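Lecture notes, unit on binding sites. The following record was shown on slide 14. It pairs a sequence with flavin-adenine dinucleotide.
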Amino acid sequence: MQTSVRAEGATLADIDLERWGGTLGSAETFALADAANRNPPQLRTHDARGERVDVVEFHPAWDALMRLATAAGEHCAPWTEPTGNAQVARAAMYFLHAQVENGTQCPLTMTYASVPVLRDHARSNQAIGEAWLPRVLARDYDPRPLPIAAKRAALIGMGMTERQGGSDVRSNLTRAQSSSDGTWRLRGHKWFFSAPQCDGHLVLAQTDEGLCCFLLPRFLEDGTRNAVQINRLKDKLGNRSNASSEVEFHDALAWRIGEPGRGIATIIEMVRHTRLDCVIGSAGMMRGAFAHALHHAVHRVAFGRRLAEQPLMTTVLADIALEVEGATALALRLARMFETQASEHDRALVRIMTPAAKYWICKRAPMVAVEAMEVLGGNGYVEESPLARLYREAPVNSIWEGSGNVICLDVMRAARREPRALDALFAELDEARGANRDLDLSAAALRKQSMNADDPSTARQAAQAIALAFTASLLVRRAPAFVADAFCASRLRNAAYTGSAFGTLPDECENVALIRRASGE
Ligand SMILES: Cc1cc2nc3c(=O)[nH]c(=O)nc-3n(C[C@H](O)[C@H](O)[C@H](O)COP(=O)(O)OP(=O)(O)OC[C@H]3O[C@@H](n4cnc5c(N)ncnc54)[C@H](O)[C@@H]3O)c2cc1C
């Protein structure tokens, strides 16, 4: 990761990365992560007198992890200190966090991603800006159930998905009615409403003017709870430290954010940033899984040799190392495209590379997790191993914020409607032209394929091809030849490769060198 951080213009000192890595990698933080997941949040709907309270109670380990991450600025740093490399620096922090605990990353991501929307709105509504932004941007953690004015720091969530549809949010049924005082009342439900303890949520609801975006506070100014009833917490496969809920709105108070009828266009700015975090988070999970696998293989002896030295295991580890290096390079390059001072080229590129990277990296994460788990043998399959939790966690980023198919259709939409995005993609691929034959052939094929961006049944092929060619071009320009050549030979030359298991690298790959590089030797 350090190579990619530097390649994207940040330095380790920019983020005090080594100290943050030390904090996250300590036995104490791993113990907190374990405790927060073994003791998932509990919903208390009523108090002893039968009054509704709708409180989500967390284990102290959750609060301790949130305190660490908010103090480090994981939810706000690029907005408060928008240096030229602030997004890259923050991505590196997030990448490290993803190797240790993922549930806490949900509210951190949503809070981070809400800022561009809130800031934009604050230009026309000063009161909302003044009440919310300083608290959202505070490097502090304040879980007290109080109205926003009484808080030191605030967290923000997002509510779009309803029972009848998550991908197709235009099918939302929740209705909003305007009140004479300029506020709105929301009536309806949300079927997935993560982190309901957040101080506010950006939600979508229908109005006479179409779908609008609203800021829904958890508490009202007078200190009473807003009319948001939490019915259940989801019993999830993974992501267990985090609370994801089902809620009903019973004339809940909200403020409209953005233009009337432009709800999707408003919240999409938040979604763009949560998609970035899905990419960084999944790349980080891969690195976390691989680090455990490598450590085991280097120390475990079987049949008279260290596992890492058994030729077939060497191939498996080298193959995963390549996957992780490629995903890391792509994730941090994507983060650079989000910088406030991003170049015109990057502004065009980000439109197509966000969904392409989200699709491919999030798809590969579960495969890396399962293979890394197997490197540990039976020990990987038990709950004391961090691999069990990573394995359960790994699919989530592919499902939320645009499931695989939906995100691939978005890649196609970008290719069809935004010629500047495609031009930027090919311009970037051209920068590596002539250095690797497999990449040149892939780039040429992609040019032909992009002419045919109308057939939705080929959208996965397109997204995969873009993500792989772009990653290969990064490695060709920056990594040693043995890394770039192995990536191109395995991932680009052999089209069937990516459907097969890890450990099938072509003979020409320098497996030992790949593992040494991944070990930091
Ligand atoms: C742990 C977790 C936390 C979540 N937290 C939140 C949250 O805080 N807020 C929130 O709003 N949502 C949240 N979600 C919901 C998530 O965003 C949705 O589940 C997701 O967007 C998919 O919507 P859906 O479940 O309704 O599936 P559907 O929209 O029914 O889609 C089902 C499948 O069909 C595919 N599909 C859909 N349309 C097409 C098409 N045109 N062509 C081909 N395939 C298609 C999709 O890719 C998907 O694979 C969360 C989900 C999870 C798992």
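Take-home: Residues 103 and 245 are 14 Å apart (CA to CA).
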